[in-house]
């Protein structure tokens, strides 16, 4: 963008354009030799496309000022002779800004169209591993049966053992999870100790399989379920 209404001595759109071109050329030389990267730590990819080959257009600003419009008309042919597109605008009155916007959008679209197609990215989707059993029965050296698993541990921690209904609900949940059946397969017998919880703070129960549903005995209503007798 070049100022067409500057009052500074020795400045005009052509001299300003020459100064900018010289600065861009110096920058391009530094990036080409690596001097700029070493001194600033800039990403080398910034200079992958030389500045001289990047899309450019020239904007002559302040044509709302009579002297500015006159100067823009004067320098426009010389700039166009350099192969550069020229747009006259006024930031104050917005004159020419719409056309400038379309021109910039066109340059962006053209530059994108000229870029090589990116290599397709292969996406590998690996399903999560199927989780194992939700609990396990471990025999302790003392002969008790320790139920290890996140669900049983969490359920026990959430249970209010002063509430008989809550204790009955816990027994139902453990039975549905398969704890009763697993204890039977592990060799547990009535009265054996069953531990559920953390290793250093487990809750101990008496196991009474005779109260399991489906064995000819109907469990009592919630609040009187004796399958879990808290110690």
Can you offer a commentary on this structure?
This protein has 231 residues and is α/β, with parallel strands linked by helices. Helix content is 39%, strand content 14%. It has 7 helices and 8 strands. The longest helix has 21 residues. The radius of gyration is 41 Å and the shape is rod-shaped.
Low-confidence stretches: 38-47, 211-227
Structural class: alpha/beta
**Residues in β-strands, percent:** 5-15%
Oligomer: single chain
Instruction: Please tell me the overall pLDDT.
Output: 79
Total beta-strand segments: 8
Which radius of gyration do the C-alpha atoms yield?
41 Å
Secondary-structure element pattern, one letter each: EHHEHEHEEHHHEEE
How far the N terminus sits from the C terminus, by CA atoms, comes to 85 Å
In this structure, how is the largest beta sheet organized?
5 strands, mixed
Question: Helix amount, in percent?
Answer: 25-40%
Which strand order does the major sheet show?
A: 4-5-6-7-8
Tally the helices: 7
* Global geometry: rod-shaped
Record keyword descriptors for this entry.
single chain, 14% strand, rod-shaped, 5-stranded mixed β-sheet, 8 strands, alpha/beta, 3-stranded parallel β-sheet, 231 residues
Blueprint of the fold:
Elements: E1 2-3, H1 13-33, H2 35-40, E2 58-61, H3 66-80, E3 86-88, H4 97-114, E4 136-139, E5 145-148, H5 150-158, H6 164-177, H7 179-185, E6 193-198, E7 201-207, E8 228-230
Parallel strand pairs: 1-2, 2-3, 5-6
Antiparallel strand pairs: 4-5, 6-7, 7-8
């Amino acid at each position: 963008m070049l100022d067409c209404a500057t009052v500074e001595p020795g400045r005009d759109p052509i001299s300003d354009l020459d100064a900018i071109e010289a600065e861009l050329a110096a920058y391009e030389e530094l990036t080409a030799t690596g001097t700029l990267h070493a001194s600033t730590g800039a990403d080398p990819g910034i200079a992958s496309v030389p500045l001289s080959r990047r899309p450019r257009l020239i904007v002559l600003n302040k044509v709302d000022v009579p002297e500015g419009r006159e100067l823009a008309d004067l320098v426009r042919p010389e700039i166009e002779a350099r192969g550069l597109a020229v747009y006259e605008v006024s930031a104050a009155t917005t004159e020419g800004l719409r056309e400038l916007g379309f021109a910039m959008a066109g340059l962006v679209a053209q530059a994108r169209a000229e870029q090589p197609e990116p290599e397709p990215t292969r996406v590998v989707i690996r399903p999560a591993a199927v989780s194992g059993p939700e609990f396990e029965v471990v025999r302790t050296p003392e002969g008790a049966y320790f139920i290890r698993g996140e669900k049983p541990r969490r359920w026990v921690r959430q249970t209010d053992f002063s509430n008989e209904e809550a204790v009955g609900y816990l027994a139902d949940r453990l039975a549905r999870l398969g704890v009763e059946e697993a204890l039977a397969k592990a060799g547990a017998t009535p009265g054996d100790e069953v531990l559920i919880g953390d290793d250093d703070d487990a809750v101990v129960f008496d196991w009474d399989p005779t109260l399991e549903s489906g064995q000819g005995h109907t469990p009592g209503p919630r609040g009187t379920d004796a399958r879990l007798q808290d110690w």
